[in-house]
UniProtKB/TrEMBL annotation:
Pfam families: CarbopepD_reg_2, Plug. Keywords: Receptor, Signal. The keyword Nucleus does not apply. Residues 119-248 form the TonB-dependent receptor plug domain. SUPFAM superfamilies: Carboxypeptidase regulatory domain-like (SSF49464), Porins (SSF56935). GO terms for cellular component: cell outer membrane. GO terms for molecular function: siderophore uptake transmembrane transporter activity. One of its GO terms (biological process) is siderophore transmembrane transport. This is TonB-dependent Receptor Plug Domain.
Length: 922
């Protein structure tokens, strides 16, 4: 009986014992210098369900394999794939080394490359940047789908606008403000972005125009590219690790490890660049340092308007082997300085004293500690602690000639109410000094775990804290001699503005579901944040904002097409991205308006008298909310033995973007009658009580920030990259995009009647109207294609590329806005519906805007084709000489539209732009 039970037991359970005998393959992948390579793709030939990546130390693990013989393929960008045969009858550990002799020219890209990551992003390598020869980070955006080469514009702030028709950012800047920049894990965005010249009348048309990034975000002019090893620009739904954004993420990784002395000298039509860098390996302690200097002129014929940049960086990394763990300490010290400088040619300008200087400096120090588990199968994978400190300085020093009309008075009262004011000098030179010193302190703790529950889960979680404060003295000028004749503020010390702190937490699970020959890759995450030190008056104080995000990618079974192996996947995602208001929006300057009540300008200066009423308004919007963008996308990727095609559709919707709105307020004051005092009878300075007066009121407008901007985006992005054609080593790359962006205002708009309209009783600004659709919005559309043929000839040390950039069409349309208001308020604050009778009233009819309907036409520019040429020659592996010519050939014909001829031939934007550079390695 027992024997029979034993036989049955063995018969049924031996297969399970056999199945239980499973083994693991572990190992490390390194380069020729012995440095671990991350993100190496490892798969098993003939088994599509196995696909792993090496971690940051180059380690990998393939678990639960049955006994047998396997062929492992190791593939990495820039190297030929390595096939390693493994006979598995026990756990094995192997080591793979990618040598420099194994460079795969088919993996050398001089264009942007669509990533295989779960988020839609573009990878830009050092090879691509060196071939592009950029002057600043702005030039790199040419390599994105929908990107196009543009001449550098270094005299104004360069903001980033992802997935937007080029040149149509308009005043809707939430998109650029909501793009997060990270360099080696250190954030560049700051919530302490304060407009240092707000309220001083230095807007459009002044020296200060376009030079303040407070509403734009990161100024890409400040980022040099010579020390960058790779850039990933996430255009889709990013990991929940990244927050305080609405548009995308820019991840910059700089060079680490040994590098010979490298000198770069570049010159083009606008700028000159010199950079120097070096990397040292001191017994395992990697040190890199570099510096660059740029000098740019907006116009080579004008030496008085320039932009200069001076950057320096020191980076170090040390790794310790601690039994089952590996500890990595990374640290960096960065110094950035830019100077916008403008003065006037004394031979051509009457304002010989005018000058403008804006010096922006930044010192940042970062420390990161990471601990990694050596055993790839360990539940705990890694943990990191990052502490970053960023101290900035924005100094403005400006002299400006100011001219007033006769009888102008000072605007410098700090107290509300009616008071005597002094007459101001008609002509003088005003001086403005601004001291802005933002400080950012960031702490981020993050952990990674590998959990095996039904399927394998890669879990990431962390806490992120950001503290920002401005400790500058703010605006400093003599109130008697303001920098312009239109001043609506008073000097304010920035250190009196409350600090901001943002506390965030995130959790993300990435897992793979094998389904026969299918593999379903998923990433599900949740991020939450709160602003922790706001006054309870603010509606967002104490609130927690949650951002769910999901990305999925279904890897389809491999198939043969025309005898070649085709790999494919389809992907999609949905996510919410939220951007908190900056200090500039939450704590605006008080608004000061000085209403003139009396200007008694006697021929005898001792008898003159002026009286004004100062009105102080607080434009703080306590109901201001964060901007939230909802984004989804679908796409597919095909890889036919190195011929790669990627196409995706995206859709974004945000109706809470930041914008300014008008706030009319009826202000009462006295209007003294000048004629009531006869100047011929005066023997002394008159008193204010000597004048007759009448009480009256008028509407004054203050602007404040609100959430009224609506932005809708949709588009199709595509990219095809061929294998390099053998013999000529040439790759063809086709990329481009169709973009459609709509901007509009969601809120009714209030407009006070023009001061040029005077009532019968000699009063102004007695009404303001509400327009349901009041502010101009826009519809912008473009479709472009870039075709690049690049030849890489390593034996000759030559790299050539020819790019045809075709903008098939570029269209913009002003959205309709109401000519007539829906209603209006009189000076008593009583609301009236605007009627047909009001259109005949001599005063109220002025609310009819009578906008020319011509501006609502859809203006569409036809094809604009440009040819760019780039060449690089390497001499004895030490010297690289490069040159480029953009717009070498241009086809942009003139065209007729709505009865008008539009001339594009020989325009400035079609003039060839060229430059060259030399790189020397010692």
């Amino acid at each position: 009986m027992l024997r029979n039970i034993y036989i049955v037991f063995v018969f049924f359970f031996i297969p399970y014992f056999a199945l239980a005998q499973q083994f693991d393959i572990r190992g490390t992948v390194k380069d020729s210098k012995g440095v671990g390579l991350s993100n190496v793709n490892i798969d098993i030939l003939g088994n599509a369900s196995v696909h792993v990546l090496t971690d940051e130390q180059g380690q990998f693990s393939i678990n639960d394999l049955q006994a047998g013989v396997y062929q492992l393929r190791f593939s990495h960008v820039g190297f030929k794939s390595i096939i390693r045969k493994v006979s598995l009858d026990q756990d094995q550990e192997i080591q793979v080394i990618f040598s420099q002799q194994g460079i795969n020219i088919d993996e050398v890209y001089v264009t942007g490359r669509e990533s295989r990551n779960i988020s839609t992003s573009t990878i830009i390598t050092k090879d691509a940047m060196q071939h592009l020869q950029p002057s600043s980070f702005t030039d790199i955006l040419e390599l994105l789908p929908g990107g196009r080469s543009i001449d550098p514009q270094l005299s104004t702030v360069n903001g980033i606008n992802l997935r937007t028709p080029q040149g149509h950012a308009s005043s809707y800047t939430t998109g650029s403000l909501g793009t997060q920049f990270s360099i080696d894990g250190m954030l560049l965005n700051s919530q302490s972005m304060i407009d240092p010249t707000a309220g001083l009348g230095l807007g459009a048309g002044t020296e200060n125009s376009g030079r303040i990034p407070s509403a734009i975000g990161v100024d890409m002019r400040t980022i040099n590219t010579d020390n960058i090893s790779s850039v990933e620009i996430i255009r889709g739904i990013p990991s929940v690790e990244y927050g305080n954004l609405t548009s995308g993420v820019v991840l910059v990784e700089r060079t680490k490890g040994y590098e010979p002395w490298s000198l770069r000298i570049k010159a083009d039509g606008f700028s000159k660049i010199v950079s120097l860098g070096k990397g040292i390996d001191l017994r395992g302690y990697k040190v890199n340092f570099d510096a660059d200097y740029l000098d740019s002129k907006a116009d080579v014929t004008n030496i008085y308007n320039s932009f200069r940049r001076l950057n320096g960086s020191f980076r170090g990394e040390k790794v310790w082997d601690l039994a089952p763990y590996r500890l990595t300490w990374g640290h960096q010290l960065n110094v950035r300085s830019t100077i916008d400088n403008e003065r006037f040619d004394p031979d051509n300008d009457l304002s010989k004293t005018d000058r403008y200087k804006n010096a922006v400096r930044n010192i940042s120090f970062g420390n990161t500690l990471k601990i990694h588990a050596k055993k790839p199968q360990a539940i705990f994978r890694s943990a990191s602690l990052a502490i970053n400190l960023n101290a900035g300085s924005n100094q403005i020093n400006m002299d400006r000639f100011v001219s007033y009309g006769t009888g102008s008075v000072e605007q410098n009262s700090m107290v509300a109410g009616s008071h005597e004011v002094a007459f101001i000098q008609n002509n003088y030179v005003g001086n403005l000094q601004v001291d802005s010193r933002p400080i950012d302190f960031n702490v981020k703790v993050m952990g990674n775990w590998l959990l095996d529950f039904l399927v394998k889960h890669q879990v990431k979680s962390g806490i992120d804290y950001l503290y920002t404060k401005n400790i500058g003295d703010g605006q400093r000028y003599d109130p008697k001699y303001p920098i312009s004749s239109i001043v609506s503020t008073r000097p304010r010390a920035f250190h009196t503005i409350p600090a901001m702190s943002n506390l965030s937490a995130f959790l993300e699970d990435r897992f793979f579901i094998p389904m026969n020959n299918f593999r379903f890759e998923n990433s599900v995450g949740l991020r939450a944040f709160t602003l922790t030190n706001l006054d309870p008056k603010y509606a967002i104080a104490g609130k927690i904002y949650v951002e769910p995000r999901y990305n999925g990618r279904l890897h389809l079974p491999q198939m043969n097409v025309f005898g070649k192996k085709l790999k494919s996947n389809v992907f999609g995602g949905y996510g919410v991205q939220t951007l908190a208001p900056t200090q500039n929006y939450l704590y605006p300057n008080l608004n000061y308006r000085d209403i003139s009540e009396l200007i008694y300008f006697h021929n005898n200066p001792d008898y003159r008298l002026a009286w004004a009423n100062t009105v102080i308004t607080d434009p703080t919007n306590f109901n201001l909310n964060p901007a939230r963008n909802r984004k989804w996308e679908l796409g597919a990727q095909l890889d036919l033995e190195g011929n790669f095609l990627s196409i995706n559709y995206f859709n974004e919707f945000m109706n809470s973007g930041f914008r300014s709105e008008n706030m009319p307020n009826a202000e009462s004051y006295r209007k003294y009658i000048v004629e009531s005092v006869d100047p011929a009878t005066l023997t002394a300075k008159p008193s204010i009580t000597d004048f007759a007066y009448r009480d009256q009121a008028e509407y004054l407008t203050t602007t404040r920030m609100t959430n009224g901007s609506r932005t809708e985006k949709q588009g199709i992005e595509y990219q095809f990259s061929s294998k390099r054609i053998s013999g000529i080593n040439t790759r063809f790359t086709v990329n481009g995009a169709w973009f459609l962006t709509k901007h509009r205002n969601e809120m009714p708009v209030a407009e006070v009647m023009s001061a040029n309209v005077i009532t019968e009783d000699n009063k102004v600004r007695q009404y303001y109207a509400l327009y349901a659709n009041g502010n101009t919005g826009g519809r912008y559309e473009s479709f472009n294609t870039n075709l690049t043929a690049d030849s890489f000839l390593p034996k000759l040390g030559l790299n050539l590329s020819l790019t045809l950039q075709s903008m098939w069409f570029d269209a913009d349309k002003t959205l309709y806005r109401d000519n007539l208001p829906i209603g209006y308020y009189d000076i008593e604050g009583i609301y009236h519906v605007y009627t047909a009778a009001d259109q005949q009233d001599p005063i109220l009819r002025n609310f009819d805007r009578k906008i020319d309907p011509y501006i609502y036409n859809n203006f569409r520019e036809p094809i604009d084709l440009r040819v760019n040429l780039k060449a690089t020659k390497v001499i004895k592996e030490r010297i690289r000489v490069s040159m480029f010519v953009n717009k070498l050939f241009v086809y942009a014909p003139n065209y007729y539209q709505y009865g008008n001829l539009f001339l594009r031939e020989n325009s400035a934007q079609h003039t060839p732009y060229f430059g060259m550079e030399v790189n020397i390695k010692i």
